[in-house]
Amino acid sequence: MPDFEVVGVTVRFGGNLALTDVSLSARGGQVVGLIGPNGAGKTTLFNVITGLQASTEGRVELDGVDLTKLSPTKRARQGLARTFQRLELFTMLSVRENVAVAAEVHRRWARAKVDIDAQVDAILERVGLGSVADTRVTALPTGQGRLVELARALACEPKVLLLDEPASGQDDAETERFAVLLRELAAQDMAVVLVEHDMRLVMDVCDVINVLNYGQVLAVGTPEEIRAHAAVREAYLGQGADA
Amino acid sequence: MDKFLTFTIVGLATAAIYAVIGSGLVLTYTTTGVFNFAQGAEGMLAAFAYWQMTVGWGWPAPLAIVVVLLLLAPAFGILLERVIFRGLEGTSEATKLVVSISLLVAMIGFAQWIWSPDQARVVLPFFSGHKFDLGATTITYHQLITILVAVAVAIGLRILLYRSRLGVAMRAVVDDRSLARLNGARTSMVARSSWAVGTSLAALGGILIASSAGLSATVLSLLIVNAYGAAVVGRLRSLPMTFVGAVILGLLDGYLAGYLPTSGTIAPYVVGLRLASPVILLFVVLLLLPNPRLRSHVRTREYFPAPTRKGMLLFSALTLAFGLVLATTLSQSDLVVYSRIFAVGIVALSLVPLVGFAGQISLCQLSFAGIGAIVMAHLGAGGNPIGLVAAVVICALVGGLVALPALRLQGIYMALATAAFAVLLDRWVFILPNFSIGPLHVKLFELGTLEVDPLKVFGVTFSSPESQMVLVVVTFVLVSLLVVAVRRSSFGRRLLAMRDSEAACATFGLNLVGTRLAVFMLSAAIAGLGGAIYATQLASIGPNNFDFFTGLPIFMLVVVGGAGFVGGALLAGVSLAGFLPFLSSLWSGFANIETMLPGLAGIGLGRQPSGAAPQFSAGFAPLRDDTPVLVSMLGGMAVVWILRLTGVIANWPMILLFAVVFLAAMLAVYLRAGPTTFAAAARQAMSDTTVAPAPSTGPGERPVPLEWVGVTVPWTADRVAEIDRHLRLDAIPVREMATAADGGPDA
């Protein structure tokens, strides 16, 4: 069972503290929510975790292995995968090829003996992109673009899956299907960390929720605890989002 | 000690000129985002204009200086901004780069056209080089003036940037262009001013240096490469650090000039070191730059789809046929000229995986070709094909060696590093005598030209122009097929993925360094093969065949032709080695402006960033898909060709008949398909191959993207409901929404 720990991460941009002493943990089978107002530091934390952004202090560990000094590539090979809030799709390629690139690279470093075509087809069916597999990704609406990113992350068979606002751009039906998918992924012993603004989805699927505000952890707890948390209501939920 | 002082002063004078040019470069780069490769060429034109006024027309020097610096140069800068660079805002760095390189090439072409390089021109230093004593050493008035000018420029820029409204606006734009615009800074005014000032500074540098560097269009234009070093020390942002960089460069130059041995055994080995020192320093500084963050997604308008099997088959067949027709119809002397099409084409092909697929920039492909040519000359003696193999292997290794330190560089810095490598070869390595490193004996151009034997494979010697043409066209087609195979392979997909987002590639564990290294080596190997073949055609090669400046048009034309397509490489070869010599043969006066044309073509880039190749293939798509007409056309052309071979017709009627058959075929396709389908087919092909296709009506049920409701399709209740669902407005009472919908899109 994967055991993922972020301990005491601080990021300083010049004089500004983007993150102050942020810790977060996730275990296989869990969906861990990470919420907070815009600018709270959620994406910065993801960037620190995946190594795209250096942290001033703190460390990132997976199953007891310290990832802090590793490059983004090496961290991915340790089992981290993510999606991006601002889509990072490969615009020259079709949906299938976007996923196949990741699957091929994964097969190489994981020395996995898999049939790429079958694996990619299965992933596309699973996230619901089977019907648009051969479309060029730039032709997709944003909601489906986010699914391509998810499919690409799944192609690496990660231990920890970091999702940055995966449901924005999806309609209600799509979000419901997405919630089911998230639970299924967690049930496969994946640790899922979810940044999301759709409170209904977060409250539905998360086992634990971390609330960030001004780069600091404001609260950690179960959905019920977070809903009841006074400071959270004031900082975030109180501003009109439905709880 | 006196000697030391003298060289210090010489060095400081050189430093002053680099500082002036470099600060102009930094000024335009920071305020407009354009790294102006043509900065040196602007200085060069100014120096020629100054010569024309003072020597040509006999004007007094001060008047000429005022006219050039305060009138012509700013006006030219504003013109450039208005006509060329304004339209480039928001385009990729590569496009801006190609445009400014094109400008450089066009300006050199222009200068050589107006001021023939065959005539020697001299610009006298100020006060005719008079000097005075300063303590133990002497200093010329020209040196003194140069140093004082640089100090004045430093003070002037400081006042401009920190004490004037315009300067404040400039600094605001440097910090954040869109924010400055929102706050009312007139960014276009800022851009215009910095182009005017930047061009004036270039002109000043050009005039100051012309007396010592000599009035040569290429030498003066490439001096900019030296000033790059100064600007890069300032990381292209800091003016004070640019001045520091200039002082380091200048002093280095002065001391090398003073202390490098000019006679003795090691002299031939170090004679190029002084000229090469600025680029060596540039390379070192680039390597010391801190690691950039991984590049995330950049919006680009380019799109390079994989060619279809049929398309590729047709491309290969037509290219082979084209080569065969040329081989059988041209005279011997013409064949020697036109077989270069495919040799240049192979070097151009080397850029397709690198620039097209991987989105990297290399300005030193022709230098790799030069290395390949040298290897062929030495190891392929007697036409031994081992020479070709060795050229490929050695170039791949050298390519890897160059790339390894440069791999973490991106965009403009990668371009600078490869340019520095190319110039380093030109100025130093290619003019080295033979030398040994341990057991390795290295032979280069051996201080002159090398003879290259025609290739000999399986007892067949490719010595006649006809056989060479066939050899090179077949090689070109084979390499094209290799490049297309790369595009279709998983390696090719990784390159295209990396081009879009290195950050995303890292998150699934792609080895970025290894992938970039691999594509750089592949590209260098192809260039080396091209160079080796080219060498067997030329039979006699020298460093000039492979210098930095000769290589620039290849890079430009590949990008203009379509860097992601093998067709783009063919277009580059055809236009550079086919079309231009052809025009020159029709009208000799054309030779003068020959260098300008590729420049002009590159300047026009930006309208169609994917290049010309996809436009061509889209235009031919209806023909390609109509097999009966296609077959008849090819048959007709074959008949025309046979008529020519049997001597019934001459070359010109053959060309005319080819054109007639082609037009007839296009007409037939048009008539058979009917006008609407014809246009639709062409449009379909365009949208497949070029920029941002309209969202396709794929298998899903999304016929019209919602953004277009009310624009391309009328508002209907269904569509409004769908928009509401996407915007999550379902919660709002339906009656209000209905009013809004009835009111139409403006409500």
**The biggest beta sheet of chain A, please?**
6 strands, mixed
The shape of chain A is globular
Whole-number tally of structural domains of chain B: 4
Strand order, largest beta sheet of chain B: 1-2
Structural class, from secondary structure content of chain A? Answer: alpha/beta
Tally of strands of chain B: 8
- Helical content of chain A stands at 25-40%
| Backbone shape of chain B | globular
Could you state the oligomeric state of the chains shown? Answer: heterodimer
Counting H and I runs of at least 4 residues, what is the number of helices of chain A?
A: 9
Please bin the fraction of helical residues of chain B: over 70%
Cα-based radius of gyration of chain A, to the nearest Å: 17 Å
Any low-confidence stretches of chain A, pLDDT <50, length ≥5? none
Strand order of the largest sheet of chain A: 6-7-8-3-9-10
- Largest interface here, residues on each chain? A-B, 46 and 38 residues
Strand residue percentage of chain B: under 5%
How many E strands of chain A?
A: 10
Along the chain, the helix and strand elements of chain A come as EEEHEEHEHHHEHEHEEHH
Radius of gyration of chain B: 29 Å
